[in-house]
Amino acid sequence: MMIRFTPIFLLLFLVPTIRTNGCGTYFHHEQYRIAWFNPLLINDAALRAFHYNTYFEFQYPADPEQLDYRRNCQEWATYLGPEVKEADVLQILYKIGPERFLNILDEGQLGTRFKNNTFIQQLLQPSHAEALAYLNLAMRAEFAHFSSTDPWGLEEEDFDFFKQITPIIQEAKQKVKSLNDPFLQRRYAYQLVVQYRYAENADECSSYCDEYFAWDSSPSILVPWAQYHKAECLITQSNIAEANYLLSKVFAQCESKKLRVFQLFDLEKLDETWRYAKTAPEKAMLHTLVGLMTSGRALDQIQQVIQLDPGSRFLPQLITREINKLEDWMLTPQLTFFEGGSHTFSFEQDEDPDNFMPGESMGLLEKDIPYLRKNLAKDHIYLKELIQVLDKWSKNPAVKKPDFAHLAQAQLYYLDQQPVQAEAQLNQIANRGDARIQLQKQLIQLLIMPQQMNILGAEAKDEIARGLSRLKELLPQSDESSRLYPKLMLYFSRMYQQKNDGLFAGLFYNRSVTIPKNNYESWDQYYQRISYFERFATLADLDALIALHQKKEQSALEKMLLVPLDPWEKLPYYYDGDDEEYKPKIVESAPSLDQAYELKGTVAFRQNKLEEALAAFEQLPDDYWEKNYAFSGYLYQDPFASTKTYPWEGETMEPYNKKVILRRMLELQKQAEQPGPQQAEACYLLGNAYYNFTYWGKNWMMFAYGKSVGELYHSPYVAWENYSFAPNSKTYFKEYFLLSRANAYYQKAFKAKPNEDLAARITFMLGTCDKYAHHDFDHPYWEEDETEPYISPIFNTFRDQFGHTEVFQDCLNTCPELADYFKK
User: Fold this and answer.
1) pLDDT band at 502 (very low <50, low <70, confident <90, very high)
2) CA separation for the pair 449, 447 (Å, rounded)
3) Are 689 and 640 in contact (CB under 8 A)?
4) How many angstroms separate the Cα of 100 from the Cα of each of 87, 92, 121?
5) At 24, which helix (H) or strand (E)?
6) Among the listed ranges 19-33, 170-184, 732-746, which one has the minimum average pLDDT value?
7) Is residue 54 within 8 Å of residue 33, measured between CB atoms?
8) What share of the chain in percent tops pLDDT 70?
9) pLDDT category, 265, cuts 50, 70, 90?
């Protein structure tokens, strides 16, 4: 009979796998960010690191296609003769490593070990002895930079780097003076630029760079490489503005240094940098770098680049970033209920809760968030400005990628809800050619369908099915697809949600399982399949789901949504390709017919439509709740108990299922309407049952499918961490958390004039209901010890009227909190 006043257990149903850090748990923004416009359309591997991302990570290799290395290899091949293969040069310069090369050279085995390598065979010719000598020096220099005298690392303090490179510098200086071969002379000069930089001799580094590697002196890759080292030296001399200028030119002229340029370029010295840029392309490059480093709006930089260099290689990259930003800002909140872009608020305690994203709800935005509403209005204005700029740019004859321009414009028209203009742009693109172009075209055609037609109609649904089938044919089964296709499913779910079609909204939603959303989603497959319907479906929606399962001839879209998820469609965002535990398996997506009946019965029960609930439950076998989900752990206890006990003291039922409970409730309801001695008892038993069906009771799974201590706190933070009854927690707040139905039956039982012992129990339960009804939902459970617990005044009535009864004495013996209260 003991009532616990503070402890509450936390139930977790296979909490979704999430990233962790020292400050808690979170999803990376990139896992849920909405990005329809594919940055890979640019087809420029060296720029992939600069795609729009809310946090810049150096997760891409510098120059992934090794274009700079190949330029250098080609220069060597051209110098040595047409019989030298570029691939052979690449093997020696960039694959075998300096230590191996030097060892083989010292052993006199170059010709033997590399007898089929055209580069080595030419270097071994007497006429190219000086070239081999240079390569020897270059390998020694590289070895000095990346190796030590002690390969075991036991005597690192004995390693003198400057001692290692000093003879290399002296030899290179002598060669620069003595050689008449311009190719080798410049190579030695490059070594001096590099070694003087690392020797911390900035003046000599800059001097050799200026003499041998002026910007227009040669098309050699050595020019931007040398200028990069000079820029590093200028930074050490605090000449940041000139270094910025050099870095911008390095960014433009080579691939391997782009990431490092991005790290070094100093925006704070930008105003001083402009004076170094003399030509239009140089100025455009500075604007490009500023644009790439701008996480907010960068249209001003784009306009400057268009004006200065309309054919710039980097314009498509800047435009794509801007489109991806707008998609993130405008769509991410409305599809995932996570905030788009970089956070604009802190998580301090004094933060206004109205500025936090709500949990997932029926409306695209459950509450009007002031900062978000304001930002969306600004974003629409900015969107129209970008449309105007691109419309003008696309007509410029300098534009080198017309299909890209049409796709970019179409994407912006889609965001602006202008499907006619979007389709007109798409019609400018042929239905063949580059696979990525065709994929993007098909995607935009799908995105504008809800803007073009009534998606509730049969013809529209057939058109959507055809479009999705075509898209799946074009999609490569890759990580890219594992993100795009589920996000598209989420998009159509929201579109049907807007049209109040809960059936198709739920079916589409269930195919977006791998996309994080601001709501709890268990990885338990049973709950995963019913999650959306449990939270948002009406009884009519569930009737439609049942009818769909029983339908003999389903439409193409219905079939598509009912089939199991493909393995690649289920690919988790954390799957690395080798982990067997998370290796994707074919799993069911839509709720089964039995799940639909069970869920319909539960939703009807929440609405207190007991006969309709029982009719749904009768379609299920008696052992359904014993064999499925976690029902067996939270339904086995008799929720009615007896008139001699309290609701938490019920015996184990045999059998236990929702059908048995509903049948008993309907019987008791009839008795509760009949005056007489049985009326009070029936009402008390019903009060016990309704108590147990609340958050605070033993049989809460009659009402909900999960339970978490987090539900007791109206947190303005995230909604996805633990199970949440939301949005039903608002719909049924009085019934589930404030025990309104239990309280009503206890009140009715008391008015039916029960005997004294039963009246005492009823009074105690009225006090218990009142206590929980006054729970402080504004403070988290971990602060409970800091607040004074609420003691219902009804307990005073319990003491005053029934203090002489055994019921009262039993309460004092088993409920020390109440006994302590009365002592005060």
Assistant:
1) very high
2) 6
3) yes
4) 18, 10, 17
5) strand 24-26
6) 19-33
7) yes
8) 86
9) very high
Tokens (6 digits) for 48: 């992939």
Q: Are 246 and 229 in contact (CB under 8 A)?
A: no
Q: What pLDDT sits at residue 786?
A: 60
Token code pair at residue 309: 């260099």
Q: Which two tokens stand for residue 178?
A: 């003595």
Instruction: Name residues whose C-beta falls within 8 Å of residue 590's C-beta, 6 or more positions apart in sequence.
Output: 507, 510, 529, 545, 561, 562
- CA-CA distance, 194 to 173, in Å (whole number)? 13
pLDDT at 586 over 70: no
Which has the minimum average pLDDT: 46-55, 346-355, 721-730? 346-355
* CB distance 536 to 362 below 8 Å: yes
Q: How distant, in Å, are the alpha carbons of 39, 136, 493 from that of 523?
A: 31, 59, 20
Closest CA to 508 of 450, 424, 589: 589
| Cα separation, 33 vs 485, whole angstroms | 13
Q: What is the mean pLDDT of the chain?
A: 87
Say which residue the tokens 């709890």 belong to: 520
- pLDDT for 232: 97
pTM score of the predicted model: 0.87
Instruction: Tell me the CA distances in angstroms from 140 to 136, 164, 167, one per residue in order.
Output: 6, 9, 10
Provide the residue count of the chain.
824
| Distance separating alpha carbons of residues 749 and 409, to the nearest angstrom | 69
**Cα–Cα distance measured from residue 762 to residue 646, given in angstroms and rounded to the nearest whole number:** 9
